[in-house]
Amino acid sequence: MNALPSHSKIILHVDMNAFYCSVACILNPALRGKVFAIGRENSYRGVVASASYEARALGIHSAMSLKEAYDKVPNLMVVSLDHSYYVHYHHLFLNLLREYSDLIEVASIDEAYVDITELSAQRHPLVIAKEIQVRLLKEVGLPCSIGIAPTLFLAKMASDLKKPLGITILRKKDVSEILYPLSVKEIYGIGKKTYPKLIEHHILTIGDFMKEENREKIISFLGQRNYDYVVSHIEGKSSNIVDPNRYSDSESISTSVTFDRVIQSEAEILYELRKMTNEIVRKMTQKKYYTKTITVTFRTTEFKTMSRSHSIEQYTDDFSVIFDVVTELVEEHYHQEALRLLGVGVSNLILEKDLPQEYNLFTLPTEDEKEERIQELMNHFQQKYGKEALFHGKDQWKKR
DNA sequence: TCTGGGGTCCTAGGACCC
DNA sequence: TCTGGGGTCCTAGGACCC
User: Which of helix, strand or coil describes residue A145?
Assistant: First the structure.
């Protein structure tokens, strides 16, 4: 664990309320005040990505399957937007936050931590938070809740306490009064597997979790590490360092598709995985990433998920090298299971500028060499699956 | 007509190296 | 003729989050 500096800090956690729905309302004001959700339009497949507060009042919440949502609210309006709209508003809200501090850590598309310790010397944190909240609503059109606390974890917990448009201050000395009465499922990091275990052992509230007399019991099924982790966070002993570079470099890039049909032929699998590999390579090229580890994911119609990965000697961003590995993984590990999801991922990433010295103009493949390999791959597939099979020709292979 | 898609982090066993 | 011990990488799976 990192040693913390002795002086305390003031951290804001700014959390957009129903972000996807809010963006949809900006683009289509007619949605304001309506019972609606974000998800795949005209479909019963998939899940709710975000629900308007009016829909939440009727029991709709994110991650709920659309089928379940329609069962609850038969006339539920479901809309979808291109992801780039959300990204656009993500940047707008970050830009506004940057007027208040350079120390901003992006936590996800709709939330960020801001270290306002310095600014707080001149103005009360509550005044700063209020101004940010009002400006985000007026200038960007997005409602948010803000938590103010001495650590990132407590700020995150605090922003959850009042929604929408809430501001909550959570000082260490108030933790027992404010957090202890809450359910353990409110703890960031306690999910749908751990929560039932806690309930089973009669650990219902955060206060129960923190009781010394429950310590040994909790450790017995949660493990010492997890126990210590949660306790230190609740006690306000976790990190107060807002790291602007956290997550700025990806650890992995992946893509996956759930099909509305059963996939069960190797040729079809490779056809779909090739499209996904193209997508991955496009993203890698755009951000100048090279990879060493390639993973293929299968999910069966019984919802059993398997992943198979392989690491290669040399970093690469070459489609044919990556797809070669994908092909080998499929040929080695796919055994006729009926599949509903396929995915490809790359990890063990490195930025082009950080490649070891031995990677240079003379050792990296030229475009011609890449082209040649793609040609070889094509020939291999035409031989194996036939010209008329699922592979439609050269330009699809080359598409970036 | 069940259960998205894109991530991060952690664990645990085995290989391999010194 | 007793089987070390630390470090790192690889692989598979799982929990969790938005």
Answer: strand
Indicate the SS3 state at residue A225.
helix
CATH fold of A179-234: DNA polymerase; domain 1 (1.10.150)
List all nucleotides in chain B with at least one atom under 7 A from a protein Cβ: 1-11
For residue A111, indicate whether it is catalytic: yes
- CATH no. for A252-397: 3.30.1490.100
Spot the catalytic one: A105, A111, A268, A272.
A111
Fold of the A1-172 domain = Alpha-Beta Plaits (3.30.70)
pTM to 2 decimals? 0.93
Between CA A164 and CA A16 the distance in angstroms is 9
Q: Is A216 left (phi over 0), alpha (psi -120 to 50) or beta?
A: alpha
The tokens describing A61, both together, are: 């919440």
Domain boundaries defined on chain A: 1-172, 179-234, 252-397
Q: pLDDT digit string (tens) for A177-225?
A: 999 999 999 999 999 999 999 999 999 999 999 999 999 999 988 988 8
d(CA A132, CA A167): 11
Give, in Å, how far the C1' of C6 lies from the CA of A236: 34
